[in-house]
Specification:
Blueprint lengths: L5 E6 L8 H10 L5 E7 L5 H5 L6 E3 L16 H19 L3 E4 L6 H9 L4 E5 L6 H6 L5 E4 L5 H4 L3 E3 L27 E5 L6 H14 L4 E5 L6 H9 L3 E4 L6 H7 L2 E4 L3 H10 L3 E3 L7 H10 L4 E2 L8 H16 L1 H12 L6 H13 L1
Parallel strand pairs: 1-2, 1-4, 2-3, 4-5, 5-6, 6-7, 8-9, 8-11, 9-10, 11-12, 12-13
Length: 363
């Protein structure tokens, strides 16, 4: 008699950052005939579009904004949390997953706590150097905690283990037809610019102000994250060395494949992908956030060039950006060194390591 499949419930959302590693774990487990999957995310985040092609049942939950500062909205967040917690209790009672997986999103907190109440084990994954507030809150309720780096163990104790950060398999496999999207009919080197899952107004402003100069020696593929402006829209139509996209959820592997250099924020999902792909990169971390620690880690390993710019871009920062990109394009030896160093940051089998822990808990 066939046994019922066990359910792995994945929960993340708000940005693409905590979603990507869970997709990688899904890819590692999906061929197990004894497992089925479900996903809880947010109403407005990009995670639903990201998992669309995997046919994983998706349920939207309210997400509590976890703040490290006071806001008038802080007053109503406890009400939202209680509602989300009670709804999670009902969902878990009806669906009875064998394990809950989270990579640090705030939408996951009431679900993991509800799972603990109902004795459903959870595994949480910590990506960034600085522990997320979500993971700090979920830590006491988790059965196991996986970490990107061994140095993070001091924050999470004995039930944590360093595995590296999982990277989606589809990122590693460019499609020949997809490459046609980026045919800009010029032999200039290609720079991929991306500002994270929800985009970056700072980086978009930087590109807007430097584009005319920078496209004299390279072509730009720019992912704006839906934060484009009229100036960039017009340049995308008129400049043959510039292509702008709001999102590239299904062509990211192609964008990586054609790029010689990547300009990026310092979210750990993006940095992990660049590590596995051995891409030379220029990191512009979000000012005054945990991203600065991620960037410092890569800089200290000789794995990236880091530019710490003000939120409001200054003229001298524009000039520095142009010079850094030009210098890196012209210095093949430096690009090779960055490529070698960044490839040593992350193991290639992180998803499999986490999958083994998942199976161990489930069994």
């Amino acid at each position: 008699m066939a046994t019922d499949k066990k359910t792995v419930l994945m929960t993340s959302g708000g940005t693409g950052g905590p979603t990507s590693p869970l997709i990688a774990v899904y890819e590692s487990l999906k061929n197990d005939e004894n497992i089925k999957f479900a996903w809880i995310g947010t109403n407005g985040g990009p995670e639903k579009a990201m998992i669309e092609k995997y046919d994983i049942p998706f349920t939207a939950f309210p997400s509590v904004k976890l703040r490290r500062y006071f806001s008038w909205r802080t007053v109503i967040e406890p009400v939202v949390f209680v509602y989300a917690f009670l709804r999670a209790i009902v969902y878990l009672l009806f669906n009875r997953p064998s394990i809950i997986l989270s990579a640090g999103a705030s939408v996951s907190v009431p679900i993991v706590i509800a799972g603990w109440v109902l004795r459903i084990p959870s595994l949480i994954h910590q990506q960034d150097i600085v522990p997320s507030l979500s993971n700090k809150l979920m830590k006491p309720f988790a059965k196991a905690i996986t970490l990107t780096f061994e140095s993070q163990k001091k924050h999470f104790g004995e039930k944590s283990v360093a595995t590296g950060n999982p990277v989606r398999k589809d990122i590693l496999k460019p499609s020949e037809s997809g490459l046609d999207v980026f045919d800009m009919k010029t032999d200039l080197p290609t720079v991929l610019v991306m500002g994270g899952g929800t985009g970056s107004e700072q980086i978009n402003e930087l590109i807007s102000r430097t584009l005319d100069k920078i496209t004299k020696f390279c072509k730009i593929i720019h992912i704006t994250g839906g934060r484009s402006n009229g100036n960039l829209n017009s340049k995308s139509d008129s400049n043959p060395a510039y292509k702008m996209f709001e999102f590239l959820s299904h062509n990211m592997s192609d964008a990586y494949a054609v790029s010689d250099i990547v300009v990026t924020r310092a979210g750990m999902s993006s940095l992990s992908e660049l590590s596995v792909l051995k891409k030379p990169c220029v990191i512009i971390p979000m000012p005054n956030t945990h991203q600065e620690k991620n960037a410092i880690y890569y800089q200290d390993k000789g794995s990236a060039i880091v530019l710490n710019f003000n939120r409001k871009i200054k003229d001298e920062e524009c000039e520095r950006f142009i010079e850094e990109i030009k210098t890196l394009i012209n210095d093949e030896e430096k690009r090779k060194k960055l490529s070698q160093n960044i490839s040593r940051i992350m193991p290639n089998n992180s998803a499999e390591r986490i999958s083994d822990i998942v199976l161990s808990i489930m069994n």
